[in-house]
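In keeping with the milestone schedule agreed at the kick-off meeting, the structural modelling team has produced records for the first pair of proteins. Each record is given below as a sequence line and a structure-token line. The laboratory manager (R.T.) confirmed that both were archived under the project's standard naming scheme.
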Amino acid sequence: MTEDPGPLSEREIEVLELVATGATNQQIARALVISPNTVKVHLRNIYEKLGVQSRTEATMEAVRRGWVSVPGESGEAAAPAVALPPIAPRPPIVRWQRAYMIAAALLIVLLSLAPGWWKSRGQAARLTPFTDVGQPQTAPVARLNVPRWANSAPLPEPRSRLALVSDETKLYAIGGETAAGVTDQVTIYDPRSNGWLPGARKLTPVSNISGVLLDNRIYVPGGTTATGGTTNVLEIYDPQADAWEARAPLPVGVAAYGLAARDGKMYLFGGWDGASYRADTYVYDPILDSWTRATPMAAPRAFLGAGALEDGIYVVGGYDGERELDTVTVYDPTAEGTAAGPWSDRARLSQGRGGLGLTVMGSRLYVVGGGWTEPLAFNEQYDMLTGAWSRSETPLVGAWRNLGLAAHGQKLYAVGGWSGGYLALNEEYLALIRQLLPLGTKGG
């Protein structure tokens, strides 16, 4: 058994108590009024914190620690509702082990006398895919010198889970999460001067967001709030006025979605609603200031990318609570209501990517980062003309997730993110190379 990495949350204790009774995931979901997929997420967190691999081991460990018991008729705790393996003989307890056990017992007594403290500590220690606060941090990842990539002026403060949008004059880094938590920061980068300036703060601090440019304004829907929940706000930034305003809210609070603009409308795909991963498709019309629901994706996912090409909106990668996805599908708004439907499949990514950055330039999709559960050694590009993905270099190997990515002129800008710690980097990638050919001279 590995060392306990931290106390369980109140919800995880509730799930563990039901696991000890032999309840199935469906039964637990009905009892706690949550989805079966959320039960799976809680179980994975419980296994990780307790250092176990199965429901039986988790039950045994919970009984051993006194967290879970099944009262018998005599008032004493009965055996848990699972078959426990025979206990192997243990070697004699030495003095230091006895002292350790006494100290552990005293700690359990103290915690039992302060349940409110226990619960608050459990909530603080709970790690989820929707925040990096509390994640163990490692040494900064070494940057590789690779072709076409160059350093630009870094963010004023390291940040991940932000929106990055270009209006072809400047880049706008909006919201996200810093080491201090969810932020309402807006910082503006001017590639001509290679410098950052502050902008008007967002009305609602949020993370796990994306943004799109429509009619010279930046639209940022939803997001994760400072309390860990989701919001349905839609807030719009006017770069000329350096001001924010609210518009019609989403039908549901959602974060970590895919977002794209096409034909003057905004399309939102999937995400997380605070309790479960979603497969929804929502369309926002800025003229009517209204949302409509369209045909959903085939399966729920969050931390995905979306970008519009000529043949439709490409929805790429993502994370479903268990694994990173290599899925690539295309949504064609003009096919809504037809027999074939608006969704079709395309060539998959070389490997799954969750928390990726995605942007469009010309007839190509550019994907940067990911690496949630598997390390990454390259980025990828999709050519609509050939229908194939190709690999490209990356300055960060391993994990580089929840960054901001935007196309600006001939370059891509990859800003912030997480790679063992919050990143302040601002990397520019020369996507298009123009060559001027010398003209011949007369008489030559």
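The second protein of the pair:
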Amino acid sequence: MAHYAFLNDNNIVTEVIVGKDETDTTHNWEEFYGAIRNQTCKRTSYNTQGNVHTNGGTALRANYAGVGHTYDSDNDVFYAPRPYASWTLGTNSWLWNPPITYPDDGKFYDWDEDAYQADNAVGWVELE
């Protein structure tokens, strides 16, 4: 079983489906599914996150594609929408990184973009 992402004209994922396993070589399945929908179709790996394959295999296109994600054709990767204006996209992991490292004290935090914009030394707010 393999997963395939359909892209609109702006390379935004509109749908992800389960399709034929990539080991079935009777067709180029990206082209096959794309022709049915008349959309660009790219295979995506459910087991790939942060450009690492969770089962020790080869990472495919950096991240599993989700609806609303972007496909970067120059780098052949998927990445999620930017969560906050201050976060930057890591070009090794293709994950969004906060400007301040998440605290490593065992507590739980949420990002507060307004707090960060007011004072670039803060941003993580402890959850109660």
